[in-house]
Amino acid sequence: MALLPGAAPLVVPRPLPAWVQAAQQAAAEPPKPKIRTGQHQRAPFATYREIANRLSEDVTNAWFKARGGSQGTVAIGVVAALSLMAPADPSGPDLGDEILALNPDELAEMLREIWGFTWFREPFLIERARPLHDWLHEEETDPDLVYAAHKVARAAIQSGLLDVTGHKDPGLRADVDVLSRLVMAMNGIAKRRADGEFHTPEPVCDLMASIIIGDRAIEPGMSLLDPAAGSGQMLRAAASHIRDRGQNPANLHWYANDIDEVAVACCAVNSIVWGLGPNVVIAKADSLAEPDWPTRARSERAEIIAHRNRVFQQATTEAAHRKALRLLTNLTQPQGEAA
Questions:
Q1: Alpha carbons 81 and 156: distance in angstroms, whole number
Q2: What is residue 9's predicted lDDT score, i.e. its pLDDT?
């Protein structure tokens, strides 16, 4: 990972980080008790990393009991989608209980809505995460996959996923990389060794980030680059270090690359979960064979965002036409027959 100077950011810096505001509000107003049905039980004394370890084991067991074999990216994609959720009202009904109450088909529809809604906000990153959600967009979704995904979702929620990722403040979501542990558990030791896949533990990444960044001045528009990012562990550590200094990581430009498409997909999701901001560029490339991968990735990002804008404009235009047609129909109906 390297810290590089850069141009001005695309966002306006916030004077006070969200995690500071959240801490001040929490100190001023004690949180109201949640409304629970009793299904979603939490482990109050477990640390985030202990929860992530347990979750990876429970989800892997649930997947292989329900499905087994290939397509393990479906299980990773289910956890990734649920990681993108946060309660609309922190004092309202428990989100975990609501997910546990869904049947398999309802869960599949919810997953589609999560990916679709997030695509409109972060089209480039959701396109990079396509290996995790492609199965949901097939003409005929495999009912066995839907059943297995349902079992995985229940295992993830009951293992405490939302205790780690279900915070409004991204600073509180960046303590651990849940997807990294799950990928390692799903792949197994033999496959990881064959592929040369090694995930750096969080404490090591935290130490490296503190050494690389140190006390250097962090200016808006600077860039952080990781040419072998995996699921983004070093980006997480750097963002946490920047937040610890009272600064907003969304004011920086983030560049990440990996040769493995599942790692790239996980990194894309994690960059949203951890709140890295609007200036994230992720590539799938061999950084040794293609040293200028950031240029290609920036171009792809621009094309995808332009496509999103066209889709949004078309949807807006069609909605306006339908509204105008309804008004015209009502106006031209005989007196007393207006809808």
A1: 11
A2: 44
Q: What is the largest CA-CA distance in the chain?
A: 77
Assigned token pair, 134: 């492609």
Output the CA torsion 175→230→53→165 (10° steps): 40
Distance CA(321)–CA(178), nearest Å, equals 44
Contact 106, 150 (CB under 8 A): no
Contact yes or no for 240/96 (Cβ under 8 A): no
Nearest-angstrom CA–CA distance, 220 and 226: 18
What lies within 8 Å, CB to CB, of 210 at 6+ separation is: 241
- The string of pLDDT tens digits covering residues 156-182 is 999 999 999 998 888 889 989 999 999
* Sheet of 253-258, strands arranged across: 2-4, 223-226, 253-258, 280-284
Q: Is 214 exposed, middle or buried (0-12, 13-18, 19+ CB in 10 A)?
A: exposed
Is the separation of the CB atoms in 96 and 40 below 8 Å?
yes
Higher pLDDT, 301 or 1: 301
The amino acid occupying position 265 is A
* pLDDT given for residue 19 in this prediction: 52
Q: What is the mean pLDDT of residues 4-32?
A: 53
Residue with tokens 């393990």: 72
Contact between 84 and 114 under an 8 Å Cβ cutoff? The reply is: yes
Report how far Cα 294 is from the mean position of its chain's Cα atoms. Answer: 21
Q: What is this structure's pTM?
A: 0.82
223-226 and 2-4 as β-strands: parallel, antiparallel, unpaired?
A: antiparallel
More confident residue, 137 or 339: 137
